[in-house]
C-alpha cells in the first residue's frame, strides 16, 4: 500500500461529479483524517475565482491535490484511478476493471453519462413552454444562473482579454436571457424546440444505458468506476425534478413523456439502482439526493 499522504479535495455538495469522488472515497474506506475537503460554492460562483482557476483551469469541481502529484487532478476518471492506486479496496475488488472487456464496458458507460445527450442541464433549465419558464424563474436554480452571470460580468470587466471568462459570460448569458427577456419570442420558441429535441436524445440515452448495464452492477459482479459515475448523475437528475425518494422514478418519467409519450425507466436500470442503493457508500454519500 502506498504511504499515507494528506489529500485535499475541492468539492461542492451540489455537484454531481464531485459525488463521483465522494463515492470513491467511501468505497475505498478512506478515513476522514486522510483528506481535507474544501467546499467551492458554485451558487456563489467561487469556481470562477482566479485563485481557484490556478488549481482547476476548467473552473469545475472536483479537483484533487496530493503531495505525490505534480499538479491537481481535475478529471473524475483520473481521480478515481489515483484513489484506486492509493488505497486497495477494503470492500471487494479494485474499482478499475482488470480485463479488457470489462474495462471497455465501464469506459463506454462513463462516456455515456458524460455525453451531451444525458446532460443534466436539460433537466435543470430546459423548458418546453412559457409555464416552464415561469416555474424556472421562481426556483433557486434561476438564482444560481443569475449569480453566475453577475459574477462573470465582474470578472469580464476586470479582465476583458480573458477568453475563459468571455466564453462563459456569453454562454451563461444566452441561457439567462431566455428567462429574463420575453420580447425575444423567436428565441424562446427555438429554446422550446431545442429542449424537446434534447428530451428525445435523453430518452435514447437512457435506453442505451438500459442496454449496456449488466447486473448486479454496471459491468457485472463487482462495483467499478462505471457505477461511481452513473449513480451521482442519476441522483442529480432525480433531485433536479424534486424527487426525494430514491426509488421513485415517476417525476423523471413524467417529464420525459411530455416529449416521448411511451418513455419508461427500464427494468435493468431499476434493478441496478436498487442494488447500488443498498451499499454503505450510497447511504453515506446520498443520505438525500443531490
Q: How would you describe this structure to a colleague?
A:
This protein is mainly α and 290 residues long. It contains 13 helices and 3 strands. The chain has helices at residues 16-28, 50-55, 76-86, 100-113, 121-125, 130-137, 140-158, 163-180, 185-212, 225-240, 250-257, 267-277, 280-285; strands at 7-11, 35-39, 63-65. The longest helix is centred in the C-terminal third of the chain and has 28 residues, at 185-212. The chain is globular and about 60 Å long. It starts with 6 loop residues before the first strand and ends in a 5-residue tail after the last helix. The mean pLDDT is 94.
The helix/strand series, from N terminus to C terminus, equals: EHEHEHHHHHHHHHHH
Radius of gyration: 20 Å
Low-confidence runs of at least 5 consecutive residues: none
Summed up, the helix count is: 13
Strand segment tally:
3
> Strand-residue fraction?
under 5%
Provide the helix percentage. Answer: 55-70%
Termini distance? Answer: 33 Å
Structural class: mainly alpha
Mean pLDDT: 94
Largest sheet: 3 strands, mixed
Give the strand line-up of the largest sheet.
Answer: 2-1-3
What spatial form do the alpha-carbon principal axes imply? Answer: globular
Amino acid at each position: 500500500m502506498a504511504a499515507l499522504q494528506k489529500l485535499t479535495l475541492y468539492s461542492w455538495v451540489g455537484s454531481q461529479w464531485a459525488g463521483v469522488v465522494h463515492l470513491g472515497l467511501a468505497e475505498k474506506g478512506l478515513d476522514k483524517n486522510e483528506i481535507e475537503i474544501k467546499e467551492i460554492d458554485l451558487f456563489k460562483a467561487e469556481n470562477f475565482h482566479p485563485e481557484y482557476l490556478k488549481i482547476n483551469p476548467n473552473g469545475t469541481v472536483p479537483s484533487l491535490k496530493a503531495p505525490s502529484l505534480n499538479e491537481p487532478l481535475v478529471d473524475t476518471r483520473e481521480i478515481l484511478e489515483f484513489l484506486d492506486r492509493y488505497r486497495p479496496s477494503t470492500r471487494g475488488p479494485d474499482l478499475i476493471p482488470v480485463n479488457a472487456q470489462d474495462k471497455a464496458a465501464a469506459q463506454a458507460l462513463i462516456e455515456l453519462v458524460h455525453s451531451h445527450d444525458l446532460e443534466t442541464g436539460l433537466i435543470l433549465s430546459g423548458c418546453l413552454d412559457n409555464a416552464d419558464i415561469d416555474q424556472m424563474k421562481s426556483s433557486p436554480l434561476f438564482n444560481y444562473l443569475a449569480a453566475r452571470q453577475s459574477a462573470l460580468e465582474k470578472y469580464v470587466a476586470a479582465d476583458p482579454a480573458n477568453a475563459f471568462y468571455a466564453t462563459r459570460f456569453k454562454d451563461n448569458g444566452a441561457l439567462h436571457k431566455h428567462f429574463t427577456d420575453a420580447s425575444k419570442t423567436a428565441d424562446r420558441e427555438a429554446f422550446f424546440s431545442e429542449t424537446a429535441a434534447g428530451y428525445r436524445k435523453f430518452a435514447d440515452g437512457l435506453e442505451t444505458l438500459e442496454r449496456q448495464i449488466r447486473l448486479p452492477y454496471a459491468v457485472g459482479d463487482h462495483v467499478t468506476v462505471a457505477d461511481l459515475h452513473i449513480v451521482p448523475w442519476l441522483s442529480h437528475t432525480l433531485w433536479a425534478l424534486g424527487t426525494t425518494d430514491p426509488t421513485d422514478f415517476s417525476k423523471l418519467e413524467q417529464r420525459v413523456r411530455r416529449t416521448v409519450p411511451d418513455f419508461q425507466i427500464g427494468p435493468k436500470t431499476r434493478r441496478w439502482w436498487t442494488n447500488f442503493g443498498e451499499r454503505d457508500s450510497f447511504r453515506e454519500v446520498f443520505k438525500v439526493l443531490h
